Amino acid sequence: MKKIAIVYWTGTGNTEAMANEILSACKDKADAKLFFSDNFSKDMVDDFDRIAFGCPAMGDEELEEISFEPMFSECEEKLSGKEIALFGSYSWNDGEWMRIWEDRVNKDGAILVNDPVIAYDYPDDKALEDCRNLAENLCK
Ligand SMILES: Cc1cc2nc3c(=O)[nH]c(=O)nc-3n(C[C@H](O)[C@H](O)[C@H](O)COP(=O)(O)O)c2cc1C
């Protein structure tokens, strides 16, 4: 079984709902653990085969700056060749933050196991299905 970390930040619960959907879809298929971004750090990256990072659009098409961004930017040193996935919620623009984030991890040399999954506001049925598909690819 693959060891998977699902590492997320949420302000109002939308990205958290995505993280929980991914976690439950991994059940029995992988050894998956959920971490709020405060509780994850760069030294934990090597403990997992794959990592799903989740963060909503914050600031001006940015990652959340107090908890998630500092944790993520430290982890980036270890993402070259790492199999990861990205997800998160947005509601002011068109998902630009995720395109920026995807470019960033591609430059880091990370390998995306699934297209990034984005949800407008609280994840609807389609977004939850996308989360389950992402989980399936994470567990493969
Ligand atoms: C301070 C702040 C900044 C935000 N910036 C953006 C943004 O740049 N683009 C966007 O599409 N949504 C933006 N949003 C909307 C959030 O991404 C949206 O409400 C999202 O669903 C929150 O997810 P969460 O419930 O996981 O915190 C912002 C919200 C807040 C509170």
Task: Offer a quick outline of the entry.
By secondary structure, the protein is an alpha/beta fold.
Question: Which terms would index this structure?
Answer:
140 residues; alpha/beta; Rossmann fold; six-stranded parallel sheet; 4 helices; 6 strands; 22% strand; binds flavin mononucleotide
Report on the structure:
- The chain is of the alpha/beta class and 140 residues long.
- The protein has a single domain, classed as Flavodoxin domain (Rossmann fold, 3-Layer(aba) Sandwich).
- The chain has four helices and six strands; from the N terminus they run βαββαβαββα.
- The protein has helices at residues 14-26, 68-75, 96-108, 125-139, and strands spanning 3-8, 31-36, 50-54, 83-90, 111-112, 117-120.
- Strands 1, 2, 3, 4, 5 and 6 form a six-stranded parallel beta sheet that branches.
- Helix 1 links the parallel strand 1 (3-8) and strand 2 (31-36).
- Helix 1 (14-26) crosses helix 4.
Mean pLDDT: 98
Secondary structure class reads alpha/beta
Give helix and strand order, one letter per element, not per position. EHEEHEHEEH
What is the number of strand segments?
6
Report the sheet-strand fraction: 15-25%
Distance between the termini: 9 Å
Helix/strand layout:
Elements: E1 3-8, H1 14-26, E2 31-36, E3 50-54, H2 68-75, E4 83-90, H3 96-108, E5 111-112, E6 117-120, H4 125-139
Parallel strand pairs: 1-2, 1-3, 3-4, 4-5, 4-6
Helix pairs in contact: 1-4
The structure holds flavin mononucleotide (FMN).
The site of flavin mononucleotide has 20 residues, from helix 1 and strand 4.
